[in-house]
Amino acid sequence: MNKGDWPADMLTEILSKLPVKSIVRFKCVAKTWCDLFKNPTFISQHLSISKRNNYLLVDYQNNGGENVMHLFVYQTLISYNDLPLQPPNHITCMNDSFCVYDGLFCLLDVFNYHITLWNPATREFRILPECNQNIPPKIEYCRHILGFGLDPLSNDYKVIYIRTYFNRKKRTRERHHAIYRMSTDSWRVLEVEDVLFFRELHISPNYNNTCVNGVYYWQASKLQASKVLCFHLNTEAFELIKSPISGSGKLLPLHEYRISMWDTERIERTNEIWVLSNDGHWTKLLKIDPLLKVERMFGFWKKNKVFIESESGQLLLYDLDIKELSDVGIKALEVGDIDVYIYDESLVSTSRD
User: pLDDT tens across 195-251, in order?
Assistant: First the structure.
């Protein structure tokens, strides 16, 4: 049977189940295949299947002091070495907090403050244009906060960039808030009145934050009260809500469409998981008995197991049923250096073509 004899829908279904590496290689088979792989419907179908066969991405600093990104097949926790996660060469020094969504990485170079969207599966990347509107010439950058996700209504990927800088002329600390739209390759700087409540607001680094169902969530605090900062990607509006915990936890997706807060209490060693309902209220989903020598938790694995970081910097699995720990095989140089993400291979393009 020639390739031309295959029914189009059957061929599409078969190709949509292939890994990105194979699809990239098959672009040269025929122009129709190449066009298919660029079709938004096919890209969406492929991503939907990929989300059912995703990977666990562990970012940590090893004993040699090197930053390492290690992939595991999520269902088995077997190491996956077919996709080298080496950032593009133009990134001289990557910020230790980055965003991962739909197979795309949002990276900040701390030397030149350039932001890059990178798809490691297709090896494509896009360096975003600079956004210096309303920023005075003589400043000192103090802090950079990123957010990244998909607006489900417009199907547009967006970057939220919050910079804190010191204005040398005024001798004041100020903030700059901007939204990047991938579809237009342009930034929109938010007006002062849009972010008045940001005064006295402290936002946590990116490794404790995430995007769920069209909303990006950061942990924050204001006047010593714990908060959660939300950015709605469709309306491009911020919202500040109460946090279910008094300290700092970890925000994680729960079944893709819900946001959860994972908290490890330092003194009593209790572990709690909270879920945000549609009406904006937090509900305690689970309380795990105190565990000794646990630094923090990283989310569920196969429902009855959770990822944890030990006080010695090891990534472990804790079985909630039999109450046993098992080693995943990752040990960081220092405690608190491990960050865990869910990674989905995708065909989402960063090209400007």
Answer: 887 878 888 876 778 999 999 999 999 888 899 999 999 999 999 999 999 888 889
- CA 221/CA 244 separation, integer angstroms: 12
Q: Rounded distance, CA 121 to CA 249, Å? A: 31
Cβ(48)–Cβ(103) below 8 Å: no
Q: Where are the alpha helices (DSSP H) in 16-129?
A: 20-26, 31-38, 40-50
> What token pair was written down for 241?
């809500």
Task: Give the span between the Cα atoms of 177 and 188, in whole angstroms.
Answer: 9
pTM above 0.85, yes or no: yes
Nearest Cα to Cα of residue 67 among 116, 110, 103, 121: 110
What lies within 8 Å, CB to CB, of 337 at 6+ separation is 60, 61, 313
User: Token match 């960081």: residue?
Assistant: 332
* Separation CA 311–CA 341 (nearest Å): 20
Distance between CA 226 and CA 274 in Å, rounded?
A: 14
> In this structure, what token pair is assigned to residue 190?
């938010």
Give 197-229 as a DSSP string: GGTTEEE--GGG-EEETTEEEEEEEETTEEEEE
pLDDT digit string (tens) for 77-98? Answer: 999 887 878 888 888 777 667 8
E strand or H helix at 12: helix 8-15
Give phi and psi for 6, each to the nearest 5. Answer: -70, 135
Q: Which residues, 6 or more positions from 262, have their beta carbon under 8 angstroms from its beta carbon?
A: 249, 250, 251, 252, 271, 272, 273, 296, 297, 298, 299
285, 194, 279, 276: which is closest to 243 by C-alpha? 276
Distant-in-sequence, close-in-space partners of 153: CB < 8 Å, separation ≥ 6? 214, 234
